[in-house]
Amino acid sequence: MSYIKWFIKLRFLALKNTLWKDKKAIMRTLSITAAIILGQILLTNILYKNIFSNIAISHELVNGMLIAFFFVAVIWIYLISFVQSISTFIRNFYKSPDMNYLITIPVPLNYVFLFKFFEHIISSVKSMLFLFFPFLAALGMWVNAPLIYFIMIIPLYIIISIIPCAIGVMVAMVGSRIVSVKVFNIITSIFTFAINVSFAVVFTRTQDISTTYILKLIDLLEKPWMSDIIPVTASVRLFYAMVIGGWSSYAGLFLLITSILFILIAFMVSKKLFFEGWAKNQFIETPDSKKKVIESSNFKDLKINETIQWIKIEWKMAIRNIEMLMASAFMLMFYLFSIFIFIYGGLFSTNPLIGISLLITIASIFNIIAVSILFIPADITKDKSLWKKRYWLLKVMPLEGGKVFNIQCNMFFIPAYIISIVGIIAYSVVNGLSIQLILLSILGMFFILYGSSAIYISGELLALTDFFENNAFIGNIITIVLPVLYGILSAGSIALFLAKDFVSDIIILSNISAIINLPIVIILSVTTVVATFLLSRTVFIRVWKQLEI
Q1: pLDDT tens digits for 264-302?
Q2: Residue ranges of the domains in the chain?
Q3: Cα of 56 vs its chain's centroid, Å
Q4: What is the pTM (predicted TM-score) of this model?
Q5: Are 81 and 164 in contact (CB under 8 A)?
Q6: Among 105, 353, 466, 545, which is 20 to 30 Å from 34 by CA?
Q7: What residue intervals traverse the membrane (predicted)?
């Protein structure tokens, strides 16, 4: 117990020094908190107005539909937490920067595992709650839930995620002794993709679930002991009880006891497996590693353009960056998730061009970021000072800023464009769009996505200048805000023009759509893409000349 108290004090001190050290840190913390809260409120209202407010069912089926939604959400939380625990285990437990310190102090290794497990739960909650909270909050708005429901979303989410996280890390500890890390990450990435696709399909079809299955689910939840003991149904009961302003004592008690039991089991398993797994995953240079370096540095055809050759080498390294594959797949899920919702939900089937424009908007915001993550080594994700050093080899080579800009742009753009094309074609074929419109959409997406790539790499480089390094929060914001603003102005404006009838009930969007017409939208979109590319290239070249590694 003393070890746990020591660890809590240590982490609390580190957190205090990071978030509440001085006035500058306090202002940064408050700004980030305000931005997160506003973002959550915005996403909640978007989900409510565009999804839940359109669900029209009889009053008798409201409770059944509510339980069905909660059941789908809980299952998704379990599966995502389980897969995320496996895929991030090596990075968060074995290769975490503080492991070199924790492994040397006189603390039993199973307690070190327990420390890292609690940190993993917090990290998992932070990374996923921004997606789940708006969904659960919008669901509460749909049924006019009391204030206590919205307050308890985060505590309930933490409690619910403990069991799948514990199972995931145990599977990872055992699995890392059987197969390689590469195989584990590939399997979990495929599994995560299947989970998100399945959820998208089920979510869009929740309203069509047969009343027979809903009644059976309600009947199961009405069996007090059985539904209280099973963790999944107990979680559903807790959410449902909060919505109606109550509390299910037995469900909460059994869920808490079961969660503690799984933590103890993981704690005992770690006594035998944690240290051995850590030792196995330390870097050891293999005999053929030097051979691979020699082969990669030996250009077979010197006549090939150095830009293409460099991009090929970067892609080879990105493909081997298995540790960041899960993070890349997670960002890509926004685009894939939208495609499946649009297709299986039949959204904008009467005017597919709206769906095409929205998909291009989403692709311009998320797909470039998703691809770029694979080019970032996992070791530098938690150390901002190492980000700049990624460019040291390019900096010392006799390359001008314009050529480096082309390398970075094409490196991210080509894979992102291929992925985006597949989604656009799939949606267009399902909705019967003509070949001419499909080709026009693909061509338009080419220019918009290339501009997105340009603004992303310029914003990333700009965030590494001295000013933004001293103001890290602003530097992080520009890498997010600029692509979002660009996507809205370039493709989002087209979607808004086409969707005048769909946004008539949303006052702000309706007022904007009323004053725009086709010539204005075309001029705005083309000007945004051209100006963004030229400005991004100019900024990149100037910053590149002044950047000191």
Answers
A1: 888 888 887 777 667 666 654 444 444 444 344 444 444
A2: 60-283, 310-546
A3: 31
A4: 0.62
A5: yes
A6: 466
A7: 25-48, 60-79, 99-118, 125-143, 149-171, 183-203, 247-269, 325-347, 353-380, 412-430, 436-457, 477-499, 511-535
